[in-house]
Design brief:
499 residues; OB fold (Dihydrolipoamide Acetyltransferase, E2P); Helicase, Ruva Protein, domain 3; Purple Acid Phosphatase, chain A, domain 2; alpha/beta; globular
Length: 499
């Protein structure tokens, strides 16, 4: 790459824009003088454009060059008249909590049984809404059928094992149980992604009195549909894992985010985007907490959890008054560790609770943001999913999120590293199809579209920790995913580069 091309790319990035692969190839075809002039005109045009320009693609660069060669009026690219106030300040917030089921805990054996009965009933109801599952029978009825009968059953997986190229699942419903075997290639592949304690439908044949051969596995999944859209082009910033109080908290990057939100940082287009951000959602681990893991005190800058929340309150108070902040607890926050978690209490975060801009919700939460259904969860259960399911890893947490969406449950596996409270009702079932699904916890950023749903795995604001170095995990630090609630476009703003 020539020095001139490097300089041109640097100028584009410093101005707050990105370039597509086709745009880069187009710049390589230009002479040095044309290259410098084209980049200068492209930045000027993007800054002045009434439409947001975030990427320089080939078409945009060609159009700008052609127009500049026609020697347009010098005022053509003059900046439009700025708003008297940001768009987000012109509209009241519209946040509606969709699920507010009270917790009814029960620590006895009957409580555990009722918890799984609730899970089974809820997800069975979801499965039976599918056209290909409506003819499913109970396991008891299946056991009464003649050998070689074809049937579908719905059950919860209580055990799974692989042996000799075959997969065996123990499945039960409210009354009976049966063993299911899968050996065919595609069925076996799908079966290896099934989790213990997951509710699934099996399409198969009765082979023996207590054995069924699977022809297919049918997941609860979500239907394909267009997402709900806000009538106003407002945006939401989906953050997680700030870890205030840690030695590794990247205060400078978070300060840049706050300056950007106040429209003090970035090119004009980027500032206009900041002016459209109405909501900031922080899905857990706002602070680093105390006593979360062995020898944590050695990695803390602030060793009192109340002081950690005081610093968090100070930082968040610098955000614009028109922004609404929604905070969920994570496994580092001052809330019970078992899912579902209650909101962070005022006992530990009094100043934050006194901030009228801040709303505390439980983990997980299902809510409407200007008519857009949003399911937010810290994502602790991704630890099990990414480590146990073949083909998944911690570098792509968004793939694990897709699996959980297909399961219609944010923490299917019971009894592993993710503690789950035995309650009378399973409040971790994803009861409806969201428009946006966000998780954090893994500290790795990712975005994916699945059947019309925008999946966001949020990165962190904490540099790589000694533990992450030991497990060879490189976190995504200082990247804020900004979602347009009208178009569902996602802009991952990298504050390592901006400012």
């Amino acid at each position: 790459m020539s020095e001139e091309l490097k300089e041109a790319l640097g100028r584009i990035i410093e101005s707050g824009y990105q370039i597509s692969a086709e745009g880069f190839e187009y710049l390589k075809t230009l002479e040095i003088n044309d290259l410098q002039e084209s980049v200068k005109n492209a930045i000027r045009a993007a800054d002045a454009s009434p439409q947001e320009v975030l990427f320089f693609d080939k078409d945009f660069l060609q159009k700008v060059r052609e127009e500049s060669q026609r020697k347009p009026d010098p005022l053509r690219f003059a900046s439009r008249k700025p708003r008297t106030k940001p768009l987000a300040a012109e509209h009241e917030g519209e946040v509606k909590l969709l699920d507010n089921i009270p917790a009814v805990a029960s620590g006895d054996m009957e409580g555990f049984v009722e918890y799984f009965r609730s899970r089974f009933r809820k997800i069975e109801r979801i499965l039976r809404q599918r056209l290909d599952v409506r003819d499913a029978v109970t396991i008891g009825d299946a056991l009464k059928m003649p050998l070689k009968s074809k049937m579908k059953i719905i059950g919860i997986v209580t055990n799974r094992r692989a042996s000799g190229g075959r997969l065996f699942l123990e499945i039960e419903d409210a009354e009976d149980s049966v063993t299911v075997m899968a050996s065919a290639g595609e069925t076996m592949r799908k079966g290896l992604s099934i989790l213990v304690d997951q509710v699934i439908c099996v399409d198969g044949m009765k082979y023996r009195q207590d054995l069924m051969i699977a022809n297919d596995f049918i997941w609860p999944d979500i239907p394909s549909r267009p997402p709900n859209r806000s009538e106003i082009p407002l945006c939401a910033a989906f953050l997680a894992d700030i870890h205030i109080g840690s030695n590794h908290f990247q205060k400078e990057l978070f300060d840049r985010f706050i300056r950007w939100m106040n429209m003090e940082l970035g090119p004009p287009q980027s500032k206009r985007l900041a002016g459209r951000v109405k909501y900031i959602i922080i899905t857990g681990d706002l602070v680093d907490g105390i006593g979360i893991y062995p020898n944590q005190m050695e990695e803390l800058e602030i060793t009192d959890i109340r002081e950690q929340y005081e610093v968090a309150a100070m930082l968040l108070s610098e955000l614009p008054d028109h922004v609404e902040i929604i905070i969920l607890p994570g496994n580092h926050d001052a809330s019970r560790k078992s899912l579902p978690q209650d909101p962070i209490s005022k006992e530990y975060a009094e100043t934050l609770h006194d901030n009228r801009k801040v709303q505390f919700l439980g983990n997980p939460s299902r809510l409407l943001l200007h008519g857009v259904e949003t399911y937010v969860c810290h994502g602790k259960a991704l630890d099990e999913i990414l480590s146990q399911v073949p083909g998944m890893d911690f570098h792509n947490p968004v793939d694990g999120m897709e699996l959980l969406l297909r399961c219609r449950h944010v923490a299917p596996i019971y009894g592993n590293s993710t503690p789950i409270a035995p309650e009378r009702e399973d409040r971790l079932v994803i009861s409806s199809t969201p428009d946006i699904f966000q998780m954090g916890h893994i500290h790795v950023h990712g975005v994916k579209k699945y059947k019309g749903v925008t999946l966001i795995a949020s990165g962190s604001w904490q540099a790589q920790t000694p533990f992450q170095k030991r497990v060879n995990l490189t976190p995504t630090v200082g990247v804020a995913p900004i979602v347009d609630l009208q178009t569902h476009a996602v802009v991952p703003l990298d504050f390592n580069k901006l400012g």
